[in-house]
Amino acid sequence: MIEFRDVHVSYDAATPVLRGVNLRIEQGEFVAFVGTNGAGKSTTMRLINGLLKPDAGQVTIDGVPTGELATSQLARRVGFLFQNPDNQICCSTVGEELLFGLRALGVDEAEAHKRVARIVARFGFDANADPFLLNRGTRQLLALASIVVLGVPVIVLDEPTTGLDYRECTQVMDLIAQLHADGTTVVMVCHDMEIVADYAHRVVVMHEGRVIDDGPTFDVLRNPATLAQASLLPSQIVQLSLELAARHAELAGSPVAAANDLDQMVHACLAQLGGADG
Ligand SMILES: Nc1ncnc2c1ncn2[C@@H]1O[C@H](COP(=O)(O)OP(=O)(O)OP(=O)(O)O)[C@@H](O)[C@H]1O
Ligand SMILES: [Mg+2]
Questions:
Q1: Does the CB atom of residue 79 touch ligand 1 within 6 A?
Q2: What atom in ligand 1 is closest to the CA of residue 206?
């Protein structure tokens, strides 16, 4: 469990960046952090993995303040994917890259090789390939795999799909969804509301260093005050349903107005048309 209690942070004493953040993330959740540029999302992620310590307030992991956990203890609990995979790839082969974190955690060499072999097979990697010659999407997958191989209970992902094409994006997100289904807690910063709508179960909206909304994904994506304050557009289907309901009074409160994804929208529209015919 991750908990923020009235957390304040600044990079230089003059400019507060987080201004009293409170939140709690339980094991097994899939939470997306959204909000305008500079809202404090990446700063919040750095606090979770202990790269940054609060000026005031407390960040705890399983009840222990991050300041009291050694880097190696934190690394066993939280895996971190930087926005740019090149910032975390440092070895000359894919196999070495995957072994790197396990060795740093002191995992027995035979066990480490076993785990790496499993991951290489799962991802279809070439263990001898040079990571820097891989395409952007595969490098992102490698960066993700180097966290997955550690078997940590929490993964923190700062914009995991930025710069990926549609196929790569789906590949990365489906893998993250699989990790979540297997019990991993997923905390993800994401600017793409389609991805948020498709994958996250809870959304935290940040604005100017504060949490301005926090709840089930579609409660948040349908909150007009939140959307306006954080300059967010909801996913396209939610936007369509909100607009249809706003323009056609007879749809207010109908399944068309409540549709959150394409399937729901198609069924609701067909039912509505069928109803109109009958
Ligand atoms: N290393 C740093 N040194 C000084 N100021 C920083 C540093 N990192 C971030 N900031 C400032 O802190 C504020 C919050 O930054 P942060 O990166 O957390 O925002 P963000 O919500 O992740 O934004 P984005 O969506 O652009 O990634 C911004 O005003 C930013 O300029
Ligand atoms: Mg950021």
A1: no
A2: 21
CA of 43 to the centre of ligand 1 (A): 6
Tell me how far the alpha carbon of residue 179 lies from the centroid of ligand 2, in angstroms. Answer: 23
Nearest alpha carbon, ligand 1 atom 7: 11
What's the CA gap between 220 and 236, in Å, rounded? Answer: 14
Domains of the chain: residue spans and CATH: 2-233 (3.40.50.300), 235-278 (no CATH)
Closest atom of ligand 1 to 189 CA is 22
| Ligand 1 pocket check for 83: Cβ under 6 Å | no
Determine the pLDDT at residue 278: 42
pLDDT given for residue 276 in this prediction: 57
Asked if residue 40 has its Cβ within 6 Å of ligand 1, the reply is yes
Task: Give me the residues of the chain with pLDDT under 50, please.
Answer: 278
CA of 252 to the centre of ligand 1 (A): 40
pTM over 0.85: yes
